[in-house]
Amino acid sequence: MATPPTSIPIEDVNEERCVPCSPGLLIDRGEVDLLTAQLKAMADQTRLQIVHLIDQAPAGELCVCDLTESLDLAQPTVSRHLKILTTTGLLRREQRGTWAWFSIRWDALRKLRKHAFPRGIDCSPL
Questions:
Q1: Among 9, 39, 88, 120, which is most buried by a count of CB atoms within 10 Å?
Q2: What's the burial of 105, exposed, middle or buried (CB within 10 Å: 0-12/13-18/19+)?
C-alpha cells in the first residue's frame, strides 16, 4: 500500500546549507558515444551470455560454432551479435581457416569501467 504524500517527512533545507559545487569534468563527447555503444552492446541478454561464455572458456576464446551450440541459436544470429561486440571494441576476432575465434578485449572493458564508473575502479581487480 502506498504511503499518502502528506505523511512523508520533508527536510527543511535552507539556502545556507546548499552550496553549488562542480560534480567533476564531463566525459569527452566522442568517448561518450563509444561508451554508450559499448554499454548498449552489453545490455543485450544474448551478447551478455556470449561474453560470459568466452570468459568461462579454458583458453579464453571460443569459435562461432561453440557459441551457436551453447546458445542454441543459428549461426547468422550469433554472428550478428558477435559483430556488434567486435565493432564496439569489446571482442577481438581472429580468423582461422573458415572459422572465426573470439576473445574478450580486457583493455576495452577496463577502459569502459574506468570512464563509466570512475569511483569504483579502485575497488575492482578488473
A1: 88
A2: middle
